[in-house]
Amino acid sequence: QLVYRIVFPYRAPIVPYLFPWIGSAVTYGSSPYEFFEKNRQKYGDVFAFVMVGRVMTVCLGPRGHDFVFNAKLADVSAEEAYNTLTEPVFGKGVIYDCSNARLMEQKKFAKAALTRDAFRTYVPKIIKEVKDYMANPEKFGQPGQKLEVLEVTPEITTYTASRTLMGDEMRNKFTKRTAQLYSDLDKGFTPLNFVFPNLPLPYYKRRDIAHDEIQGQYLEVIKKRRATDQIGEYNRDLIDAIMNTAVYKDGVAMTDEEIANLCIGILMGGQHTSATTSAWALMHLAQKPEYQELILEEQKRVLGDNELSFDDLQEMPMLNAVIKETLRLHNPLHSIFRKVMRPLHIPGTNYTVPKGHYVMVSPGHTHTHNDWFKEAAKFMPERWLDEEEVKKVTGGNGTATVDYGFGAVTKGASSPFLPFGAGRHRCIGEQFAMMQLGTIMTTFVREIKWTLPEGVTDVPPIDFQSMVTLPKPPAEIVYMRRNEKN
Ligand code: HEM
Predict the structure, then answer these.
(1) Do the beta carbons of residue 159 and residue 129 sit within 8 Å?
(2) DSSP strand E in 170-306: where?
(3) How high is the pLDDT of residue 398?
(4) Which of 87, 132, 245, 338 has a CA-to-CA distance to 50 between 20 and 30 Å?
(5) CA of 107 to the centre of ligand 1 (A)
(6) 481 beta partners
(7) Cα 142 to middle of ligand 1, angstroms
């Protein structure tokens, strides 16, 4: 450390490490928040560490959020940071396998599938998918038996997202073979693939075959729609949304392969994040079943005997508080990073991050820190019903607080609460995710009551080994069906 400080007086202090190249990968990877906090105590909010040949400069806290999420395009690049991982999974020409300007336009193309009008049509479809799933004993087991949520929530997420965003043709193609393809493609989305995006191993080959076959399924639907539909006439789903708009400002049209790849990328963006959020929500509600009853009471008040609609979801503060609290405690993405493209000074310090290094930000660390959230380790949804508390965490950066109908969220990058990121790479799926999670949780609470299995008193610890922060298995619940009148 001393030698490093002498040689590089204008760089952030670096966490000492024993093994070159590997650096602090193991301690960081097994428990990133602990790693961040330990080093924050030693070095402050800004420090660097080595991880598999990359130097990461971590910028913690809301100032770090602002610095990284709002960094200039010429200074940092997400595509340089992520594309080795994402290109083999999503495919060519989309998301990070193109310029940032192209990505910004692609996000706009997708927007027509992510409007309130679209959500109004999605809610009944999601309810039906969830009810069908819960009625299937092969999938959902029997009341009284243990149910592994890590098996249930990825499937429910896939079925609900594909029924709504991909449309009926793609959803109806969902056979065991398709499930296998998605599972193979998913396996290409691991921390290992960041480091070794391509190795001559069967696992990589299966990922590539899966991509090509899934792309082929999309192409079939796209070609059929081109042949039979008036393009621009329909707005059923994400495929329509992109087909109807996919011409860049400079007149270049996306190819059908790129449209298919964009659909794969967008669906993948929502898959793990929403599946893990619903898994954690189920676990917390199993540990504190009183919240199931509060959500149910709220529903009865809002819905009476009616079926849930998208507009009703916005009248349910407790439901939304439970989802926000889950996202606070279990931000699916524990670290977000960018590659530095030209020397980058960190405001408020005398450090400059050199070109070729990375900057890293962790809203999840901020979310779970007592400096920013009272009793931060506790699952307390009611904190989101306390207006003063909410103001503190949503007023960041002087930017207007925007209300999408799910309670206040902010677009300001310096907010302490940023589960969906901020700035140019901010999530486009936030409102879809809130709608999807809200509908799934509403349906669960209406149909069943659940608890942790006998003898289990706490939710599982966090497993940081995958791309998102999952509960460490077993993550089990035991359920009973509510009778019709409940
Ligand atoms: C970007 C979180 C659901 C599509 C992001 C980012 C975060 C995030 C933190 C910013 C990444 C960065 O700055 O590097 C989440 C969470 C979700 C969720 C917590 C659910 C609980 C979804 C859904 C979709 C989606 C449902 C699609 C329908 C995207 C896309 C981007 C993105 C396309 C843009 C990437 C970019 O511009 O670089 N998401 N997301 N996400 N997300 Fe989500």
Answers:
(1) yes
(2) none
(3) 34
(4) 87
(5) 11
(6) 448
(7) 34
Atom of ligand 1 nearest to the CA of 276: 21
pLDDT tier at 393 (50, 70, 90 boundaries)? low
pLDDT for the residue 203: 86
461 secondary structure, DSSP code = P
Which of 3-17, 219-233, 246-260, 432-446 is predicted with the least confidence, judged by mean pLDDT?
A: 219-233
> Which two tokens mark 25?
């990968």
Q: Is 427 in the pocket of ligand 1 (CB under 6 A)?
A: yes
This complex has an ipTM of 0.99
Annotated ligand binding at 263? The verdict is no
Q: Is pLDDT at 406 greater than 50 in this prediction?
A: no
DSSP, residue by residue, 52-78: TTEEEEEE-HHHHHHHHHT--TTTEEH
Best probe residue, ligand 1, of 86, 271, 326, 420 (max atoms within 8 Å of C-beta): 420
Cβ 270 under 6 angstroms from ligand 1: yes
Q: Judge whether residue 485 has pLDDT over 60.
A: no
Pocket test for ligand 1, best of 273, 322, 424 (most atoms within 8 A of CB): 273
Query: By three-state DSSP, how is residue 247 classified?
Result: strand
Q: What is the C-alpha to C-alpha distance for residues 479 and 470, in angstroms, rounded to an integer?
A: 21
pLDDT band at 474 (very low <50, low <70, confident <90, very high): very high
Q: Distance between CA atoms of 287 and 277, rounded to whole angstroms?
A: 15
pLDDT at residue 235, as a whole number:
77
Token pair 């990461």 is at which residue?
56
Report CA(429)–ligand 1 centroid distance (Å).
6
Q: Are 389 and 408 in contact (CB under 8 A)?
A: no
The token pair at 195 is: 């480091």
Q: How far is 22 from 53, CA to CA, in rounded Å? A: 6
238 pocket-lining for ligand 1 (C-beta < 6 Å): no
Say whether pLDDT at 115 is over 80.
yes
pLDDT class of 9 with cuts at 50, 70, 90: confident
Tell me if 242 CB under 6 Å of ligand 1. no
DSSP secondary structure of 408-438: EEE--TT-S--TT--GGG--S-HHHHHHHHH
pLDDT of the residue at 188: 86
Atom of ligand 1 nearest to the CA of 432: 26
Rounded-to-5 percentages of helix, strand, coil across the chain: 55, 10, 35
| Residue owning the nearest CA to atom 7 of ligand 1 | 420
Our answer on whether the CB atom of 429 is closer than 6 Å to any ligand 1 atom is yes
Q: Is 274 in the pocket of ligand 1 (CB under 6 A)?
A: yes
Which residues, in sequence order, are bridge partners of residue 352? 345
pLDDT value, residue 201 = 85
| Alpha carbon distances (Å) from 33 to 38, 275, 365 | 8, 21, 6
For ligand 1, say whether the CB of 98 is within 6 Å of any of its atoms.
no
